[in-house]
Amino acid sequence: MEQEEIVGDLDQSVGYVLKQVQASLHTAMDEVLRPLGLTVAQYACLELLGQHPGLSNSELARRAFVTRQSMNLVLRRLQERGLLTRPAHAAHGRALPTELTRAGQSTLREASVAVRAVEQQLFSPLSQAQQRRLREELAACAAAAIAN
Amino acid sequence: MEQEEIVGDLDQSVGYVLKQVQASLHTAMDEVLRPLGLTVAQYACLELLGQHPGLSNSELARRAFVTRQSMNLVLRRLQERGLLTRPAHAAHGRALPTELTRAGQSTLREASVAVRAVEQQLFSPLSQAQQRRLREELAACAAAAIAN
DNA sequence: CCTCCTATGTCAGCCTGCTGACATAGGAGG
DNA sequence: CCTCCTATGTCAGCAGGCTGACATAGGAGG
């Protein structure tokens, strides 16, 4: 229908290409997570808790790039499914430290394997060295953006 | 509150860092576009039409990484504001070729300048050569993902 | 010529994420 | 000690995006 050889200026924009790859990643992740009954946001939450047990709702939200309110809903769903536990009352401040249950850890392991495969597939056009450099350069941009 | 020096495994994931940068870009774009009364999706639509006049709803949706239904709503809003025009009836198939009005082109120019500045700022930690290589490598991944 | 098959535009309903607001807990500073 | 100030959790309301569905236009293939 369209001549794809005609390369517009948008393909010259780093931001557009970045969005393109991110969209591909999100779609691919959604496809492999759906059979496990997980959304991408829910998976992100589990992965964060797997690597940093005891994170609070707000802290999880920041690291998953969503608001506290959205993360709150994610946590509630996962808690209903028995994948994680939160104390009813805060021991010290108001922050409620969250932890994975056995079931949560099990689900996370399954999901993590699938997502890792997806990621590996997506970045397969690049060598290991290229992937590492890509990650470092993107991390530099992210760090600068936060500092700003 | 948290020791940021502690680097978890997630920061070793290209996908996570990619998401981080993309989230920063989206937030920054939203901030500069809001004063112009535009959402990120609306800007994307205008930019696509500026570079490829006559694109249909479905084609715009694909290139903006949303569904036809979502793009349809975006187009309707922009049309109400007089920023673009669509024929009431299709000349040939069912596709309705969309074009920017003078007002649309004007708004696009303003927005485009602002967004370009944001992008330049975000990727400023990288040299021109690094940015170019980054874009090419990401484009390679995107192309492979589509081919798959 | 007639029959699939695909692509497009559109409607309805749902879910998710965000903004705005509020109460509360802890710490900083006078 | 009392007063801001910040951070957190949570509730309510709203906008945006997605899935599912339908009708229609055009082309492919027998």
UniProtKB/TrEMBL annotation, chains A, B:
Keyword Methyltransferase present in the record's keywords: the answer is: no
MF term (GO), any: DNA-binding transcription factor activity
Lineage per the UniProt record: Bacteria, Bacillati, Actinomycetota, Actinomycetes, Streptosporangiales
User: What species is given as this protein's source?
Assistant: Nonomuraea dietziae
List the protein's name.
Answer: DNA-binding MarR family transcriptional regulator
Concerning InterPro entries, the annotation shows:
HTH_MarR-typ, MarR/SlyA-like, WH-like_DNA-bd_sf, WH_DNA-bd_sf
Superkingdom of source: Bacteria
Please tell me whether the keyword DNA-binding is annotated for this protein: yes
Where does the record place the HTH marR-type domain? 11-143
**Looking at the Swiss-Prot or TrEMBL record, what is one Pfam family this protein matches?**
MarR_2
**Which GO BP terms sit in this record?**
response to stress
Keywords linked to the UniProt accession:
DNA-binding
